[in-house]
Write a structure and sequence with these properties.
six-stranded antiparallel sheet; 10 strands; protein serine/threonine kinase activity; Transferase(Phosphotransferase), domain 1; alpha+beta; Phosphorylase Kinase, domain 1; single chain
Length: about 270
C-alpha cells in the first residue's frame, strides 16, 4: 500500500482502526502516515514497519523502542499511543507533531538566536535525562529525528525515531556501527566500542548546526567522515565568529585539546 496515496480513493485506505490521510515520510524500512482514529477522530502519526524488512538486530531495536516508549510519558519524548500488528507489519500510533522536524526548521529559519538554541538544548537535555535514567542509547540523534510539537514560535521538541536504540547498562559497551555519519561520534565511525556518551556528541553537532545553519562536518562518504572528526570540529568552531561570540569559552576549550566529550559538555553547560 502507499503508492496510491494521492489519488481520490486515498481517504478510504486504513490500517486497523486508523484512516490514512496523507503520507508524511518514507524510508527503506518504514512509512509514516498522517492518520485519524476512525472512532475518536484523534490525529496521529502512523508508522508502518514491514516485519520482512527487519534483521534480527533491527527487530531487537524495535522491541527496545516499543518497551521504552510504552513506559515513559515525558514532554520531550515522542508519545506512543498504540501499537499493533497488521498484515505483516508492526504499526506504531505516535503523537502527531504539526511543526515537522528540526531539520526543516533549520532549513527554513537558518541559524537561530542564542535564546532559541538555549531553549532547544534545555529540552533536548531533559529528554536525554530520561534516556539515561532508562539506560537507553538512541544512536541516531539528528535534526530529522527531533520533532516540533507545533509550528508557532514556541514549539516543544520531541526526541523521536528510536529505531536504532538499545539498552546499554553503565558497565556495558556496544560495537554496532549505526546512525547518520554527520552526527556519529568518532568511535562509531572508527569501528570502536562505545557507550551512551555517543548521544552527547550528536547533541553537540546539533547545537553547532542550530547556531550556524549547517552541520559541523562535511564529507562525501562515511569513510571521509572518519578522518579526524574532532580536528574538523575544533577548526570549524575556532574559526567561526558567531559561535565564538555566543560561546567564547568553547574556543579556549578546544585549543587546549580537551577530549571531545569535554568540549561538548562545556558547550552544553554554557547554554543550559
Amino acid at each position: 500500500m502507499g503508492e496510491n496515496f494521492e489519488n481520490s480513493n486515498f481517504q478510504e485506505q486504513s490500517l486497523g482502526d486508523y484512516v490514512l490521510r496523507s503520507k508524511l515520510g518514507e524510508s527503506s524500512l518504514s512509512t509514516v502516515w498522517r492518520a485519524e482514529h476512525r472512532t475518536t477522530g484523534e490525529v496521529v502519526a502512523l508508522k508502518q514497519i514491514p516485519l520482512a524488512k527487519l534483521t534480527r538486530h533491527l527487530r531487537n531495536c524495535l522491541d527496545c523502542e516499543l518497551t521504552f516508549l510504552s513506559s515513559v510519558n515525558h514532554p520531550n519524548i515522542i508519545r506512543l499511543l498504540d501499537f499493533f500488528e497488521y498484515e505483516g507489519s508492526i504499526i506504531l500510533a505516535l503523537e502527531f507533531c504539526a511543526g515537522g522536524n528540526l531539520a526543516s526548521y533549520i532549513q527554513h529559519h537558518g541559524r537561530v538566536q542564542e535564546c532559541v538554541a538555549k531553549r532547544f538544548m534545555q529540552q533536548l537535555g531533559a529528554g536525554l535525562k530520561v534516556l539515561k535514567q532508562n539506560h537507553i542509547v538512541h544512536r541516531d540523534l539528528k535534526p530529522e529525528n527531533i520533532l516540533l510539537s507545533c509550528s508557532d514560535c514556541n514549539p516543544i521538541l520531541k526526541i523521536a525515531d528510536f529505531g536504532l536504540s538499545r539498552i546499554l547498562l553503565p558497565d556495558e559497551s556496544a560495537e554496532t556501527v549505526c546512525g547518520s555519519p554527520l552526527y556519529m561520534a568518532p568511535e562509531i565511525l572508527q569501528f570502536q566500542r562505545y557507550d551512551e556518551k555517543v548521544d552527547m556528541w550528536s547533541v553537540g553537532a546539533i547545537l553547532f548546526e542550530l547556531l550556524n545553519g549547517y552541520p559541523p562536518f562535511h564529507g562525501r562518504s562515511s569513510v571521509q567522515m572518519t578522518v579526524c572528526p574532532l580536528r574538523s570540529f575544533i577548526n570549524t568552531i575556532s574559526y567561526n565568529f558567531e559561535v565564538g561570540a555566543v560561546c567564547p569559552s568553547i574556543v579556549v576549550a578546544v585549543h587546549t585539546r580537551s577530549p571531545y566529550l569535554s568540549v561538548i559538555l562545556f558547550c552544553l553547560r554554557i547554554l543550559i
